[in-house]
């Protein structure tokens, strides 16, 4: 029996000289550093980048190669942690989920901090008011009585009732796109209501009434003007306005 000969594999498809995918793109960034200047200002950075890269990659390139003082948040880089919501070309998006080719790279791409929260530096805002509203709606399962001896059963239909609102990653894209929130910052905001919804409609939870009372407050659900900005902004595709409407309906009917 003859021994089979192994052919050396090539290192991949040959690349033609002019196949470089790079294009020249200008990023217009809203800068703010209270230690240096009281006013925010726009600064342009023109870089070479593959349009199939994401805005987050461009920000990294600018920070690593052009200006190390550029400040922004990011962690997972894959649309899961919710830390890099920002206004890109005037619309709230996650920088790690936004491809440069999808946002018209022929014109300068504007990137600025989300609105309605105090800017601390460049693209970083103070998220504390946002998380305080989240904490205020008790975003955890509340049960009374004895500890169960086995898991709490739930039918597929009951689970389905709040499936959409379990997807929230707390990025604040919805709340910071809401004109009511921009105006006074007191409104709980869509994200807090989404997370209240997730437990109000959970058949295992026993604090629905309490959460509804919290949201019946003057800064609660009734401040919503149904502008749908929140639904448009949500990178997880959650029907935010619908969730708010369901909470409003539950407040009127007390059925949930
Ligand atoms: S509802 Fe959507 S936009 Fe709002 S915080 Fe959750 S994931 Fe972000
Ligand atoms: S970096 Fe985690 S969602 Fe974008």
TrEMBL record:
Entry EC number(s): 1.3.5.1
Protein family (similarity comment): Belongs to the succinate dehydrogenase/fumarate reductase iron-sulfur protein family.
Pfam families associated with the record: Fer2_3, Fer4_10
GO terms of molecular function: 2 iron, 2 sulfur cluster binding; 3 iron, 4 sulfur cluster binding; 4 iron, 4 sulfur cluster binding; electron transfer activity; metal ion binding; succinate dehydrogenase (quinone) activity
Enzyme class: oxidoreductase
Protein name: Succinate dehydrogenase iron-sulfur subunit
Pathway annotation from the record: Carbohydrate metabolism; tricarboxylic acid cycle
Keyword 4Fe-4S among UniProt keywords: yes
Cofactor binding note from Swiss-Prot or TrEMBL: Binds 1 [2Fe-2S] cluster.
Organism classification: Bacteria, Bacillati, Actinomycetota, Actinomycetes, Kitasatosporales
Catalyzed reactions: a quinone + succinate = fumarate + a quinol
